[in-house]
């Protein structure tokens, strides 16, 4: 009886040792490539808008056809609103600073309360 129990215990220990060895070998083969992580901060400054020119619709002069202006720094995306709210109109940018926004749906001069320019580099 003692021999039988000793054999069972030995077999269990041997199986546990084999599983531990295989698990260690599997874990030892893992590789993780180098990576980079970081944290940083930078100042966000606004744009200065100069030389604003509104062009009225030739057929209906109570509507604004387009607005053009110059930014003090280069931008890659510019959108505007002349009503101070949505909808915003995407603009064409030449040389990073010269912006022309032609309205798809022309706002009326009466509804134009403010020029809101949203720009990013």
Give the helix level as a range of percent: 10-25%
Biggest sheet: strand arrangement: 1-2-6-5
Number of helices: 1
H and E string: HEEEEEEE
| Sequence stretches where pLDDT stays below 50 over 5 or more residues | none
Write up this protein.
The chain has 121 residues and is α+β, with helices and mostly antiparallel strands. 22% of the residues lie in helices and 30% in strands. The protein contains one helix and seven strands. Strand 1 (49-56) and strand 2 form a beta hairpin.
Q: In a nutshell, what does this entry contain?
A:
With 121 residues, the protein is an alpha+beta fold. It has one helix and seven strands; from the N terminus they run H-E-E-E-E-E-E-E.
Characteristic key phrases:
rod-shaped, 121 residues, 3-stranded antiparallel β-sheet, alpha+beta
Helices and strands in order, then pairings?
Blueprint: H1 2-28, E1 49-56, E2 64-71, E3 77-81, E4 89-90, E5 92-94, E6 98-102, E7 116-120
Antiparallel strand pairs: 1-2, 2-6, 3-4, 3-7, 5-6
